[in-house]
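F.,

This is the one I mentioned.
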């Protein structure tokens, strides 16, 4: 005779019920672990996004010291504010500092000897510069161009306004532009009214100065 008695139907039912409860408890524990892992991932992603946004915000306001003696700070988009800019003079010694120009409207024009449209528009910029006198400051910036080539170009096109050099194009790139020529219209105090990509002739330049800087001939 066997030492193990046969299980009654009631005992079998109780055993099945216990196994079912254990299976449900196990499933609940695994589900809780999955939910906790998902929450952790979502929080990590959220923190990462906040960190990226915060870092991006800092990029546009912190001072950037770049190779070639260029320093700048501010939100450099149209509608933003140019807080500071210092760069070496294209020809001669010393540097050009925006602090000395901030009380007047300013037209910044990027140029390079390898840019045909820059070469074509620079005499027009000179004519508008002469016609406006000291009502508007003009600043030409050679970007990503050998200094000698840009100096020769400035002489050939006859510009007489101040010129600086952004040897590695870091200030130009910080504006978020890619096309040349590029012209930036800055109101007194540093507000960037417009960042224009493309060539400008004399009449269009005068029109944009009137529209964005409030100065007309």
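My design for it:
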């Amino acid at each position: 005779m066997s030492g193990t008695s046969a299980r009654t139907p009631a005992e079998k039912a109780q055993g099945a019920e216990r196994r079912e409860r254990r299976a449900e408890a196990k499933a609940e524990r695994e589900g809780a672990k999955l939910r906790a892992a998902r929450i952790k991932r979502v929080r990590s992603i959220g923190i990462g996004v906040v960190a990226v946004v915060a870092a991006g915000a800092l990029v546009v306001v912190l001072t950037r010291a770049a190779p070639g003696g260029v320093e700048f700070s501010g939100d450099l988009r149209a509608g933003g504010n140019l807080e500071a800019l210092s760069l070496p003079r294209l020809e001669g010694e010393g540097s050009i500092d925006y602090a000395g120009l901030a009380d007047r409207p300013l037209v910044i024009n990027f140029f390079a000897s390898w840019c045909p449209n820059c070469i074509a528009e620079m005499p027009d910029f000179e004519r508008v510069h002469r016609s406006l006198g000291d009502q508007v400051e003009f600043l030409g910036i050679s970007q990503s161009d050998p200094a000698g080539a840009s100096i020769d170009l400035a002489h050939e096109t006859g510009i007489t306004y101040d010129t600086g050099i952004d040897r590695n194009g870091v200030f130009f790139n910080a504006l978020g532009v890619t096309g040349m020529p590029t012209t930036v219209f800055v109101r007194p105090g540093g507000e960037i009214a417009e960042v224009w990509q493309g060539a400008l002739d004399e009449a269009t330049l005068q029109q944009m100065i009137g529209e964005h800087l409030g100065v007309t001939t």
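Confidence is low (pLDDT under 50) at residues 41-62.

Talk soon.
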